Amino acid sequence: VKVKIPFGNKYLDAIFSVPEKKPTYGVILTHGAGGDMNFPHLVSLAAYLASHGVLCLRFTCKGLNVAYRTKAFRAVLEYLKLSDDYKLSGVFLAGRSMGSRAAACVICQLSQGDDDDGFIQGLVCLSYPLHRPKLQSRLRDEHLLLVSCPVLFVSGSADEMCEKQLLEGVVSKMKAPKKIHWIDKANHGMAVKGRTADDVMEEVNEQVFSWLRENIQLQHK
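^ TEX30 protein, sequence as received from the core. Prediction below:
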């Protein structure tokens, strides 16, 4: 279902992937610095989640400024929260690369204000860009250390923007419940020599869904 989401004086393009049965939980998903919501990994993940009963709303925001992307993400979150068509119990924020930075920013902003109503259930970071290529001395970890909801990282072990030991170091300092799934030998774009893109996407999709399911069940106990 295609929708236009109001954002300031313009609109963001977005698509709902809707499960057959009425969903209780949803995922908001966005792309990295390049591309848009039709990036193959996002399309694949959205379809997988919807086929497993989780609503997925993915959107395009072309700005290359993290603050701007964060504002856009908040507009989409508010839109879904107030939606009459989908009454959800909670939502997970997810993004690829720069999109995951924006998602982490949104969660930090909301948890510091009075807006934290428990609607956000967790954060999914696909290829989180912990540092620029070859610039390991400047880590983009400030928001990660402030997040308190559960966090899943899915990263390639050969990601040039997220060195394995550095991410493990940041994660060990995080107070939130967290998990890292390493895609063996994958780069920042999740490409692995000797494996098809579909094969890698299947691994990513299964990991994301099983983690969502665990976290939804944990809250119901």
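Residues 33 and 64 are 6 Å apart (CA to CA).
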